[in-house]
């Protein structure tokens, strides 16, 4: 099944297709992780994107039942140097090609992923399309230039109805902007009683649940496109502790008057160093985002910067100066990646307990 990847900038890569035999179009990005491809494929934050893996061999430990980050994958497609046809792992239930066929996903292998990554690093992310070998390249390029990427990715991946993940501890409302199951697992390990709600849930509806805290999840796309989120956060500030991750972090920034911007090629991988400015301590983190909070715009807000990325000095963490609210741009739940930042969930628990204690003492 010969295929080719065509970029809107005119570059063409020829290779071999795997998974479902169909043409796919999306924003082409790259991920530097050596492992964790199953979590990546099932991460809702990749909605609408075609992901190039910089590590050359993908699929070598197969697909298993335990490492999913969502029930339905939202990724558009996968680009790899080499797909492993015979995985070797005691947990493996199928290979990557079989999984892609079952899930109606498509990918391309056998291309120069190093060259593609250099193009994306130099020029920034671009639209691309994986098509059959006989597709007319000029026509595809013109179509890509004229096409407009979707802006409703959060609505596509968010739960449509609320559901519970019961526990006997603190009551947490998790606003699902494309939440990874890793967040639920971390809260469950701390015995939190979690109610997961849709991305368009209002502050009034959240407060009716009477939570001890609210968590704003990760998710895909531009934070400016998430309608109603900033207004909801503004109404919750001061009334309940808030913890934001990735997209949730950016939405807190917008709600407090900061601005966001699109990164040239984003942060995607499991090896990104982040400096905690308060503790003067570095954590190696898992990241997946294409937007960041503008640090200059923080000066006119009640937010203080708590973390920065050491690779490009962009913002990685915020804390509200008045209200119990903090956030990070990276993924403390990892999945996949290092667990250096798991302590942030414990800090969220402590924040909720302190806030609850103050309310009871009044």
Detailed description of the structure:
The chain is an alpha/beta fold. It folds into two domains: 2-146, 3-Layer(bba) Sandwich (Glucose Oxidase, domain 1); 153-361, Rossmann fold (3-Layer(aba) Sandwich). It is built from ten helices and 19 strands. It has helices at residues 37-41, 96-102, 113-123, 137-146, 153-157, 181-189, 203-208, 229-236, 247-255, 343-361, and strands spanning 2-7, 12-19, 24-31, 49-53, 57-58, 77-79, 82-83, 106-109, 126-132, 163-165, 171-176, 193-198, 213-216, 242-245, 260-276, 281-293, 303-309, 315-320, 325-328. It has a ten-stranded mixed beta sheet, with helices on both faces. Helix 8 links the parallel strand 13 (213-216) and strand 14 (242-245). Helix 8 (229-236) crosses helix 9. The termini are far apart. It catalyses: L-glutamine + H2O = L-glutamate + NH4(+); hydrogencarbonate + L-glutamine + 2 ATP + H2O = carbamoyl phosphate + L-glutamate + 2 ADP + phosphate + 2 H(+). InterPro entries: Anth_synth/Amidotransfase (IPR050472), CarbamoylP_synth_ssu (IPR006274), CarbamoylP_synth_ssu_N (IPR002474), CarbP_synth_ssu_N_sf (IPR036480), Class_I_gatase-like (IPR029062), CPSase_GATase1 (IPR035686), GATASE (IPR017926). It is an enzyme of class 6 (ligase). Residues 1-170 are annotated as: CPSase. Its EC number is 6.3.5.5.
């Amino acid at each position: 099944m010969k295929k080719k990847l065509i970029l809107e900038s005119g570059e063409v890569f020829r290779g071999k297709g795997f998974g479902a035999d169909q043409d796919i179009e999306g924003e082409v990005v790259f991920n530097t992780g050596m492992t964790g491809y199953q979590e990546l494929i099932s991460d809702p934050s990749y909605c609408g994107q075609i992901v190039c893996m910089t590590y050359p061999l993908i699929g070598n430990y197969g697909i298993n039942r335990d490492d999913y980050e969502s029930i339905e994958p939202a990724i558009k497609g996968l680009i790899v140097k080499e797909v492993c046809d015979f995985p070797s792992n005691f947990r493996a239930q199928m290979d990557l090609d079989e999984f892609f066929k079952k899930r109606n996903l498509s990918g391309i292998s056998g291309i120069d992923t190093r060259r593609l990554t250099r193009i994306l690093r130099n020029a920034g992310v671009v639209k691309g399309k994986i098509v059959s070998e006989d597709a007319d390249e000029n026509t595809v390029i013109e179509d890509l230039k004229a096409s407009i990427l979707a802006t409703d990715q959060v609505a596509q991946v968010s739960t449509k109805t609320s559901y519970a993940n019961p526990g006997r501890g603190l009551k947490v409302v998790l606003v699902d902007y494309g939440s990874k199951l890793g967040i639920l697992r971390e809260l469950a390990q701390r015995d939190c009683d979690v109610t997961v709600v849709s991305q368009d849930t209002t502050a009034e509806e959240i407060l009716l649940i009477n939570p001890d805290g609210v968590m704003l999840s990760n998710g895909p796309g531009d934070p400016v496109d998430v309608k109603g989120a900033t207004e909801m956060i503004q109404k919750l500030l001061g009334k309940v502790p808030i913890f934001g991750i990735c997209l949730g972090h950016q939405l807190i920034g917008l709600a407090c008057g900061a601005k966001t911007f699109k990164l040239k090629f984003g942060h995607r991988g499991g090896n990104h160093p982040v400096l905690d400015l308060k503790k003067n301590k570095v954590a190696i983190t898992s990241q997946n985002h294409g937007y960041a909070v503008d640090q200059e715009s923080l000066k006119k807000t009640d937010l203080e910067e708590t973390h920065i990325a050491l690779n490009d000095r962009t913002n990685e963490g915020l804390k509200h100066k008045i209200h119990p609210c903090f956030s990070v741009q990276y993924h403390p739940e990892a999945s996949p990646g290092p667990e250096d930042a798991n302590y942030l969930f414990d800090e969220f628990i402590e924040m909720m307990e302190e806030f609850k204690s103050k309310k009871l003492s009044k």
